[in-house]
Amino acid sequence: MQKKYLRIYNDLVKRIQSNSWTIGDLLPSENELAAQYDTSRETIRKALDLLSQNGYIQKVRGKGSVIINRNQFSFPVSGIESFTELTEKMALNSRTIVHSIKYLDPKNESMEILKGNPNEKVWNVNRIREIDGEKVILDKDYFNDKYIPLLTEEICQGSIYNYIENELGLVIGFAQKEIVVENPTEEDRELLDLEGFSNVVVIRSQVHLDDASLFQITESRHRPDKFRFVDFARRVKN
Which H/E stretch holds residue 5? Predict the structure, then answer.
């Protein structure tokens, strides 16, 4: 059963998206929302925190929660979350199109870093991510088959991370990420809705298991108008 703060969050998202409030409006106070939803202020705070994290509101001290412009989707840079997890959390209307699943040619040296020895194989999965009917992300994933021995269209249609953690019993540990802006490739132009756009935002990641084994390299290519990439930073005084 879905937790209450998530039900409240999803209901508030629907109300915001249906223009119950417009950009710049204040949400009702925590006390008012607690009364409306017959719950505690702590539960309301959790729902509001999630609205803030996902770019729906800005909390302003002394005023409350202000509705902000959310034409761009907020994707966390520092976390490790699957597209399915992100879109479910953000209540986005999304679809995944599995474009291809195959082993790389053994002679292809571009992913040698993934192999512990020459006999290991590398999966290549290309998926197109559609949000609100527009193809805006091309995910190009590479997996060492020592850790991921089987990938099917059904698995790739859903969350591969869910399969890795819950079916294979592996623990995903950490990732190193690089973000760059590049000119679109012919493949980008063919598979994404890029008319009028002259660049793409590319996130390249190396993802490790909790024992530090490298099991995945991914290249996520985004249409630039739909996303803002967010992170949290804390200053440490020397």
Answer: helix 4-17
